[in-house]
């Protein structure tokens, strides 16, 4: 794991340097910008279907914070959404199957966001990105300009990976890395990663079946011995991918908060310090 983190640090430093020129100024100086990454387990509330109640909970919090914060969302859940409606045969081609499910599920996921958010007076838009977009200067300019115009006009961009043509998110990080790269590109104030735990737990406390949250992290190396390799049940991310995402954000001086998205009002409670979560600074 130590070698992985060392390699990660090298890659991230170079990537952050490439993103930095596009992120020197925030579009709105009057509001803080939060990039909220929502994982599949949060969206489904650890069930087999997308939870409209959880999406409504997220929308209500965004509406309540509208005066002081603007939000950009990176959302997983397209595959989970598709599984509610269809069952496909893959003939052993697992990646192709997941890409097909993502293609079916993405419009359903956006429909659910739109229906729940519009009831709260919130406007939504869809942005599909791939990692190759972060390697091209013109693409980075387009992303920043498009999202800034959307936010200026009170639309909430909902970003997902373009799974039909890319397999990185499906195989590895459940959009954690995509969220971090986007956070850096947009120069957000906070990257909030919603997951199904109260942040990162100490390994000893997990073994003792009394999980204890590591609440503040200044050096990612201290987490090397604490995190495991488990994956989430619906997505492909685990705590390792969230630490890697935090490393990307940290290199750009962006705080990462790993928060239990299963809690009601988890954003509001985290901002008020009312729930335990891990803050990486």
What does this protein structure show overall?
The protein is α/β, with parallel strands linked by helices and 281 residues long. Helices cover 43% and strands 16% of the residues. The protein is built from 11 helices and 8 strands. It has helices at 2-19, 40-44, 52-64, 78-83, 94-118, 137-152, 168-171, 176-186, 203-207, 239-251, 266-271, and strands spanning 32-38, 69-75, 123-129, 155-161, 190-195, 216-217, 255-260, 278-280. Strands 3-4-2-1-5-7-8-6 form an 8-stranded mixed β-sheet, with helices on both faces. Helix 8 (176-186) packs parallel to helix 10. The chain starts with a helix and ends with a strand. The model is unreliable at 1-12 and 229-237 (pLDDT under 50).
Overall geometry comes to globular
User: What is the number of helical segments per DSSP (H or I, 4+ residues)?
Assistant: 11
What percent of the residues sit in helical stretches (DSSP H or I)?
Answer: 40-55%
Largest sheet: 8 strands, mixed
* Radius of gyration, taken over Cα atoms and rounded to an integer in Å: 18 Å
Task: Give the total of beta strands.
Answer: 8
């Amino acid at each position: 794991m130590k070698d992985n983190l060392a390699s990660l640090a090298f890659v991230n430093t170079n990537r952050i340097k490439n993103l930095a020129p596009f992120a020197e100024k925030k579009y709105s100086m009057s509001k803080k910008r939060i990039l909220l990454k929502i994982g599949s387990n949060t969206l489904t509330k650890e069930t087999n279907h997308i939870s409209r109640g959880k999406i409504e909970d997220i929308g209500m919090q965004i509406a309540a914070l509208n005066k002081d914060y603007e939000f950009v969302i990176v959302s997983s859940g397209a595959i989970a959404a598709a599984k509610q409606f269809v069952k496909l045969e893959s003939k052993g081609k697992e990646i192709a199957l997941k890409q097909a499910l993502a293609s079916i599920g993405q419009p359903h996921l956006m429909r659910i966001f739109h229906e729940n958010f519009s009831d709260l007076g919130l406007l939504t838009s869809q942005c599909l990105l791939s990692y190759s977009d972060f390697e091209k200067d013109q693409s980075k300019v387009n992303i920043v300009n498009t999202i800034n115009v959307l936010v200026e006009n009170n639309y909430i961009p909902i970003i997902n990976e373009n799974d039909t043509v890319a397999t990185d998110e499906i195989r590895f990080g459940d959009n954690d890395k995509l969220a971090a790269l986007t956070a850096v590109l947009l120069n957000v104030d906070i990257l909030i990663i919603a997951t199904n735990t109260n942040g990162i737990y100490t390994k000893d406390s997990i073994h003792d079946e009394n999980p204890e949250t590591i609440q503040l992290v200044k050096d990612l190396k201290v987490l090397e011995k604490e995190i495991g390799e488990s994956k989430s049940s619906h997505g492909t991310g685990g705590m390792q991918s969230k630490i890697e995402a935090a490393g990307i954000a940290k290199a750009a001086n962006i705080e990462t908060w790993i928060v239990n998205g299963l809690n009601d009002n988890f954003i509001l409670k985290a901002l008020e310090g009312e729930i335990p979560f891990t803050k990486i600074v």
